[in-house]
Amino acid sequence: MNKIKNFFYKLSKNILFVTIIFATVILTVYTITEAIDSSSTNSSTNNSKTSDGNGSAQNNLEDTEIDKIVEDLKVSGNIDNILEKLDEIIYRAQLSGNSKLQEYATNMKKKYELQKELDSVNGLISAMKKKNSSIADVDTQVTKILSVSTIVEDLRGAVSDECLFILESLDEEKVKNLQELMSEVETVFDLKDISSFTVQQRSLLDILFLSKLIEDDMIDNERLDLAKNTISVAITILESYEKQNYIPAEYTKLVDDSDDFSKTGNKAFSVLPEQVVFLGGYFTMKHAPIMYDGHILVAVEDLYQYIDSDIEYMYNNATMVITSPGKTLEIESGKNQAYLNDEPRNIPVPILNYNDVIYMSAEFFAECNDISYKYVADSEFLVLYYNLVQLKNPSVPNQIHKD
């Protein structure tokens, strides 16, 4: 919120200057376009007259003349030299009575004069940005707003070819709907250093963007099928890496324990260990993940390995209190409501005690601890990927049940 306030404060200070600059740029670009269109229209008209036999023979350029003009412009170099050369061509055309060449060269001269003016304005903007950081901030924000298509370009190389293909097929209005997600992604990943991205990070980006498109009904038919298949591949990749963290004996026990839980009731289902991915985490789960009433639950002991915290049971174990830096979470047994720093929070599924192990909704855990996550319901897959590790010593897991 403070960032937004600061942005609008800076915007209000510099809005007049920025408005004038960008208005000049837009007017210049428009004028260039008009000049080019005029040149194209006039050239087309003259060509039509010539083909109809109404044009003068002197208006027909010989191949040698065209080659000479092109060669002169090639060696002219900068815009000032090109303008000087165009003046010579206009003068020669007047002397020879070649009105078509004169008109063409005149319009080309207008184009380069306007290009020179545009370059001057861009130079002024660059100079002001270097001198004033507030203007630089405003310019960055305005550029992002005006160029929503840059979202696709920024992701080139960071996502799969399939994901990029789908993104490129979107119209501008739909791309705008990705701006909020793009802002979040930019806080997690350095898109200026795409070459350093891991396979897991690229797969995660596929999941985030394609899931957004599907959830918001922005794609259909073949693109929808392609998106689902691409997400499936990305999930398989993340699950494969997660599974490698477990030794076979540990993995088998977790699978068996989760299967046992699935037999306890109609709302109980099993979950494979790799269906819960701790991206950037290094600790394996000691207790089997489970699914209850459509939500993945993970043992509190396994979740809080990543956060410096303590747990205390109160009122004959009816209430669980978890304290961590800046947070106090109170959860009462059997209730769908908890309190985070005395503020009520809804829990999708009450905490559950199974085989003397306390389980909590992994999504609720992430939300309470400001951890970014994504749950793909169709695949019953959950990945926690940002701000996961909150430990003074990241290499040592927290023991929430202190001896």
Fraction of residues in H or I helices: 55-70%
Distance between the termini: 41 Å
Structural class: alpha+beta
Kindly provide the radius of gyration, computed on alpha-carbon positions and rounded to a whole number of angstroms: 32 Å
Structural domain count: 3
Which shape, going by the Cα principal axes? Answer: elongated
Q: Outline the biggest β-sheet.
A: 5 strands, antiparallel
Q: What is the mean pLDDT?
A: 82
Strand order of the largest sheet: 1-3-4-11-10
The amount of beta strand, in percent, is 5-15%
SS field, number of helical segments: 14
Query: What are the secondary-structure elements, in order, as H or E?
Result: HHHHHHHHHHHHEEEEHEEEEEEEHEE
**Total E-strand runs:** 13
Low-confidence stretches: 1-5, 38-59
